[in-house]
Specification:
Helix content is about 45%, strand content about 20%. The chain contains 13 helices and 10 strands. It has helices spanning about 5-25, 45-60, 75-80, 95-105, 115, 140-150, 165-175, 190-200, 210-215, 240-245, 265-280, 280-290, 300-320; strands at about 35, 65-70, 90-95, 115-130, 155-160, 180-185, 205, 220-225, 250-260, 295. Pfam families: TctC (PF03401).
Length: about 325
């Protein structure tokens, strides 16, 4: 090879190396990571964040801290991530139906969902469990629907917050049963479940990861579940589909997002690590015990889901005139 050709080849190789270097560096994590959970402790997002944090830390060689930043329908925590450095060190883990509903609920958001937050991957889907207070005179799903219609007062339905997926699903159920319910918002699914256990609320609907223990331990009565099939831990509890009820695939869809300008190589690295963590036998078994199903298709599938779900919930919120005030 002539010296001139050799020099040209060397320069080209150097240029390629220089271009590739930022992508390589972008995948490295050089300080502790934070997983922001925009809900109170004890909910599905919090349970999942603490389940994966240690393994994620091992995978990237850094410690991972879980921070609960509850308030404003998840917007406080989401805003922390939206305004973080775009380097993948600050992650948002939440029921992403909240991201899908908030644009229709809040006239002004402190961030732009589409620009300031980037999907990494969905993690799990957990069907909803419809649970009723043990004192309520309704032993099964059909008896509950009949009681809701004939009771002298509307049933108190606890939900995880105005405009949340649990609230909207309960609205759909009330329409199907032909009787309005009194919707009582709480700051997350865990407080709503506690209200049912104490008898403060008549019923609620919450993700299986947090609701299942209450049902299995007979602290409340599970009468129906969403999703494709019955839960192994509650084999006698029928699905919404079996009952002919609406919202058959409603549930909690837990996903990870990062700051919107985070480089694609970082997003792909995080997706790869999270996908492997959710598939670990011990974690997969724990998720199964909690009634959750892995959903780790990655950023593009997550973005498509988010777009479609936002459109669906926006129509439902507007049709029912759901407002935060």
């Amino acid at each position: 090879m002539k010296r001139r050709d050799l020099l040209r080849t060397s320069l080209a190789a150097s240029a390629l190396t220089a271009l590739a270097a930022p992508a390589v560096r972008a995948q490295n994590f050089d300080r502790p990571l934070r997983i922001i959970v925009p809900n109170a402790p004890g909910g599905t997002s919090d349970i999942l964040a603490r389940l994966i944090a240690q393994e994620l830390g091992r995978a990237v060689g850094q410690s991972v801290v879980v921070e609960n930043r509850a308030g404003a329908g998840g917007n406080i925590g989401a805003d922390v991530v939206a305004k973080s450095q775009p380097d993948g060190h600050t992650l948002l883990l939440m029921d992403v139906t909240t991201i899908a509903t908030n644009p229709a609920l809040f006239p002004r958001l402190p961030f732009d969902n589409a620009k300031d937050l980037a999907p990494v991957t969905m993690l799990i889907y957990a069907p909803y469990i419809l649970g009723v207070a043990n004192a309520l005179p309704a032993q099964d799903a059909r008896a509950l629907a009949a009681h809701a219609k004939s009771a002298p007062r509307p049933l108190n339905a606890g939900n995880s917050g105005v405009g949340t997926a649990s609230h909207l699903t309960l609205i759909e159920l009330a329409d199907a049963w032909g009787r309005e319910m009194t919707h009582v918002p709480y700051r997350g699914g865990a407080p709503a479940l506690t209200a049912v256990v104490s008898g403060e609320a008549d019923l609620t609907i919450a993700g299986a990861t947090q609701a299942q223990p209450y049902a299995v331990n007979n602290q409340m009565r599970a009468v129906a579940v969403t999703g494709q099939h019955r839960l192994a831990s509650l084999p006698n509890v029928p699905t919404f589909r079996e009952l002919g009820w609406p919202a058959v695939d409603a549930g909690t869809w837990q996903g990870i997002m990062v700051q919107g300008n985070t480089p694609r190589p970082v997003i792909e690295r995080l997706h790869k690590e999270l996908q492997a963590i959710v598939a670990m036998p011990a974690i997969a078994a724990r998720l199964k015990d909690l009634g959750a199903e892995p959903r780790t298709e990655g950023p593009d599938a997550f973005r498509n889901w988010l777009t479609e779900t936002t459109d669906t919930y926006t129509r439902l919120i507007r049709a029912n005139n759901v407002r935060l005030d």
